[in-house]
C-alpha cells in the first residue's frame, strides 16, 4: 500500500443507510498485462476460503478457548466475512481504480 504505484489500496465508503463499508482495491494486471503479485495472493486466499473458512486455525483455537470470547469471536467472524465480501465485490465490480 506504500510507494508510488501501490497494488493494494485500503478504501472506505459511507452511506446513510448502511454506514461505513471498508474494503480493499487490488490491482489485477500490470502495465504489461501480467497478474500482480497482490492479485495472485488474493485469488489464492479466496480459493482457500472456499475450501475451509479459517485462514489461521491455531489463532482461532487459541481465542476460542479464552473464557468470554465466544461472542467476540462470532462478531469478528461476521466482520471478516463482511470485509472479504466487500473486498471481493469491489474487485469484481470495479472496472478501473487509479492507483
Mean pLDDT: 76
> Structural class per helix/strand content?
alpha+beta
> What does the main sheet amount to?
2 strands, antiparallel
The tally of helices reads 3
Strand order of the largest sheet: 1-2
Net shape = flat
Strand portion: 15-25%
Count of extended strands: 2
Helix content: 40-55%
Oligomer: single chain
The low-confidence runs, each spanning 5 or more residues with pLDDT under 50, are none
Alpha carbon gyration radius? 16 Å
Could you say how many structural domains there are in total?
1
Order of helices and strands: EEHHH
Q: How would you characterize the overall build of this protein?
A:
This protein is α+β, with helices and mostly antiparallel strands. It has one domain (8-93). Helix content is 48%, strand content 16%. The chain contains three helices and two strands; from the N terminus they run ββααα. The chain has helices at residues 37-51, 57-64, 69-93, and strands at residues 8-15, 19-26. A two-stranded antiparallel ribbon has the order 1-2. The longest helix has 25 residues, at 69-93. The model has no long low-confidence stretch (mean pLDDT 76).
Amino acid at each position: 500500500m506504500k510507494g508510488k504505484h501501490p497494488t493494494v489500496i485500503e478504501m472506505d465508503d459511507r452511506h446513510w443507510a448502511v454506514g461505513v463499508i471498508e474494503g480493499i482495491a487490488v490491482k489485477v494486471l500490470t502495465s504489461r498485462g501480467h497478474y500482480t503479485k497482490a492479485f495472485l495472493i488474493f485469488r489464492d486466499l479466496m480459493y482457500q476460503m472456499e475450501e475451509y473458512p479459517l485462514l489461521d486455525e491455531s489463532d482461532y483455537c487459541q481465542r476460542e478457548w479464552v473464557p468470554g470470547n465466544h461472542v467476540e469471536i462470532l462478531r469478528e467472524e461476521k466482520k471478516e466475512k463482511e470485509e472479504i465480501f466487500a473486498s471481493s465485490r469491489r474487485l469484481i465490480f470495479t472496472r478501473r481504480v487509479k492507483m
